Amino acid sequence: MKQFKNxxxxxxxxxxxxxxxxxxxxxxxxxxxxVITDVTLRFTELDNxxxxxxDPFEFLASDPQGIELGTPTIETVNLTKGKTYKLEILLxxxxxxxxxxEEVQEESDEHQFxxxxxxxxxxxxxxxxxxxxxxEALGLVGEVIVAENPSFNNANxxxxxxxxLDKNFPGADNPNFENFxxxxxxxxxxxxxxxxxx
Length: 198
What we know:
By secondary structure, this protein is mostly beta strands. Helix content is 14%, strand content 38%.
């Protein structure tokens, strides 16, 4: 009987050791991808000399869970034919009360926006060029020119933010680079705004 008791104790010890050894010593991988709950497109009209005209106006996409996780509410962008605008993109995480724009700016060598959709490619209504303060092809600040006589008045503006891409990849410096995936990296944001041109 004593032998069975010892065997039982030994089995319990071995079972405990197996359970402990099954626990992973590997560190938990953190997800570096930022949650973005709000994307604001801020437009300011520019005159022929590049000076701002009037007050800025904004269009918002938002989802309290995160734009990449939920179903965001997206406002329709309204622009005027033949006008030139400064476009600023503002990114925010309302869950953590964090300005993501600053982080993207600080890591400008690792991030880049691409401007796609029927508004920018094919027979584009809009022409976009990077105009970031540090000269980096980033896309937080740019210039948008609306066609004088567009062939259609409704389009979509697809805006993609890539992270950890190879900025020296051939074509990656083109803001309308449709094959952006080939430059590597990951997508932090992929959102489409409806566009109406009057």
